[in-house]
Amino acid sequence: MKLFDRPLTISLSPNLEKDDILLALSVLLNLRHWQHGNHIKQAENWFKEYFKTKEVFSFNSGRSALYFILKAFGIEKDDEVIIQAFTCVAVPEPLIWLGAKPIYADIDQSLNIDPGLLEKLITPKTRVIIVQHTFGVPANINAIKKITRKYNLRLIEDCCHALGAEYENKKTGTFGDAAFFSFGRDKVVSSVFGGMAIFPKKYKKIYSYAPRELYGQIRMPVRKWILKQLLHPLIFSLVLPLYNLGLGKLILALALKMGIIVKPLEEAELSGGHPAHFPALLPNALAVMIVNQLKKLERFNRHRQTLATVYAHKLKDSVKIKLPAANSGAIYLRYNIFHPQANNLLKLFKEKEKIILGNWYKSIIDPEGVNKGKVGYTPHLCKNAEEAAELSLNLPTCPTLKKEQAEKIADLLLKYENH
Ligand SMILES: Cc1ncc(COP(=O)(O)O)c(C=O)c1O
């Protein structure tokens, strides 16, 4: 690895390319169009076209989009919403903000809701099932749809990892009553923060509140918040080339400490707290960034699939490593493997090889530090999810990772698999 190369880490704005950095700079200088401008419509139109629906609403995060969908469906205090364990705290958060109760369902080998375990969780208070396509691997939608139909429940697809994934040759996001997407820094395409809600069906039948009216009540984020997100790619243009020298890490820590940029989740959210900037609309400044990234979606996803094939091929004979089942519709936002000493491997890679592999959902309501009681999870409730979290280790598939680097990671995994 050369000194100024991007560090081999699964995170640190993995979708950020040179053109995105230059674009952020030009948007930063175009102060008049930070909040309003025609890129918001362009981003929404991309989704309208891609999903063949008119009902598309842009937001400043996946969390805001989910909040809006739940509100449109009339979810309120004491309603129960089924979500899976092995998720991000940003999923139960909007339910808690509405006073609703997250009911955690256990998962199957695909790391998605196990439809066979769902029915026993349904009570007279259940209103919604949220189906997450974890790491871009589609859930068993047909089986889940049978249940939502039988009990007359709303089905929401969490496509935050799965923009462009397919189930039975149809795009994920088109199966439920609504779907939401995230443009967070580690997601399929990124504008640091951002999200979209779509409703594939005509709304009159299923909504308690007309979405257009509801949408009209949601605010634009303040300029200070937008500025921080625009500074993110610019700070990272310094952090990434200087990371291997140690200086990049320092710049990152300082920028965070000084509040120049922000983490994806605020401290208060780890206990279900409700920051003032959610829900909010997608500002034009971030819409410019996401419109640019959406042009790259196909390339990004093909690359992810190629790297998944590299890992699958290289690791197929390993005795200790268990691979995800091959799935031609998956986009593999991350390639998750199981290993009995996954935690050791994460440590070894970091210390000996300076490679940071992924620990998404090592804490089953991620990230580490989430107060599980406050977000309605009781220990040992979802045994499969807890076991998966213990054994999981995610391999990078990001657009900025070269095929040779993925091969190197696979070779090192084989070297260390017995440690
Ligand atoms: C599965 C899943 N759903 C929803 C979200 C929320 O997205 P956002 O961070 O844009 O609010 C996340 C965020 O990490 C996620 O991993």
TrEMBL record:
Transmembrane spans: none
Listed InterPro entries: DegT/StrS_aminotransferase, PyrdxlP-dep_Trfase, PyrdxlP-dep_Trfase_major, PyrdxlP-dep_Trfase_small
Top-level taxon in the UniProt lineage: Bacteria
Sequence positions bearing N6-(pyridoxal phosphate)lysine: 187
Gene3D superfamilies: Aspartate Aminotransferase, domain 1 (3.90.1150.10), Type I PLP-dependent aspartate aminotransferase-like (Major domain) (3.40.640.10)
A UniProt-annotated Pfam family: DegT_DnrJ_EryC1
GO molecular function per UniProt: pyridoxal phosphate binding; transaminase activity
Catalytic residues in the record: 187 (proton acceptor)
Keywords (A to Z) from UniProt: Pyridoxal phosphate
Alphabetical GO biological process terms: polysaccharide biosynthetic process
Family the UniProt entry places it in: Belongs to the DegT/DnrJ/EryC1 family.
PANTHER family: DTDP-4-AMINO-4,6-DIDEOXYGALACTOSE TRANSAMINASE (PTHR30244:SF34), TRANSAMINASE (PTHR30244)
Record's protein name: DegT/DnrJ/EryC1/StrS aminotransferase
